[in-house]
Amino acid sequence: MDIALAQSIMMQRSAATYSQAQVSLLKKAMDSESSTAAQLLSSMPLATEGNVGRNINTYA
């Protein structure tokens, strides 16, 4: 019975560590995507005439 309990605890810890690694990797990927999107938006020229194309809604 003690061995099964120890195995269960070790499996839970392993799963928690795996989940933490996945979250860390996801955060890094999202930071990279955010940086790339910011660079892309900053490289686009602004509209020089009219009212259309002067603002980009980045909230959505």
Topology:
Elements (H helix, E strand, L loop, with lengths): L1 H42 L17
Protein name: Motility protein
InterPro entries: YjfB_motility
- Overall form: rod-shaped
Number of DSSP E strands: 0
Topology as a string of helices (H) and strands (E): H
How would you classify the helix and strand content by structural class? mainly alpha
Strand content: under 5%
Radius of gyration: 23 Å
Which blocks of ≥5 consecutive residues have pLDDT under 50? Answer: none
Mind describing the biggest β-sheet?
none
Total helices: the number is: 1
Query: What is the mean predicted local confidence, pLDDT?
Result: 85
Helix content: over 70%
Q: Report how far apart the termini are.
A: 53 Å
What does this structure look like?
This is Motility protein. It comes from Dermatophilus congolensis. InterPro entries: YjfB_motility. By secondary structure, the chain is mostly helical. It is 70% helix and 0% strand. It has one helix spanning 2-43. It is rod-shaped and about 75 Å long.
